[in-house]
Amino acid sequence: MHLYDLTRFLSELSENNNRPWFIMNKPRYDILRAEFLALVTELIQELVKFDRQVAACDPQKAMFRINRDIRFSADKTPYKTRFSAGITPSDKRRPSAAGGPIYYFHIEGNGRLLFGAGEYLPPAPRLRAIRAHLVKDATGFAKMLKNKPLRATYGDLQDEDSLQRPPKGIDPDHPLVEYLKRKSFFVRTEADLQLDAPDLLVPQLVRGFKDASALVTWLRGVPDTFEGQ
Fold it and tell me: Which of 53, 59, 93, 220 is the most exposed place for a label (fewest CB within 10 A)?
């Protein structure tokens, strides 16, 4: 993939985020999107080597649309200024009630790469199920948190939007109460793109996603429902 061309396009889009500019530059976008599809296709093929559950993921469906949903947003700019994809076994990039972890990455116009894995702001039924499983499998969760590749690449689980107090029914003295307050069970990190070495991008993402496999595996062990939900 031509990363210089992609970051230049995204940078220009951020300065001209309007429909006339986008239509004028649609041929550029179409070429870049086709290249991004090829990248996502290769990435899935490599991920299958350690996570066979994503073998059926459709690369087309894994890619997020560049159009923003502005119906309920104060920001009416029509386009996202990044190329992004989310890889799951079910092709569902947005959380359903059943939920499930995702491998996610995006490329920004400033040359930054963000990637991570897990469940970001899962819907309420799924979040309750994760918390209930954490209480039931506190030992397994604590072991997952100590996983060396996970800690080395990502540090701790992100704590954005955490509750100030424990959720209803949760023991405030539980040893993992700070994690029970989380609204997301997700890890992520950022890096500068190696613009002059595009062939290194897929291997970099594969390593990063493999390092998050302990979290992905634990989340896949969460039952869909628990008694009392």
Answer: 220
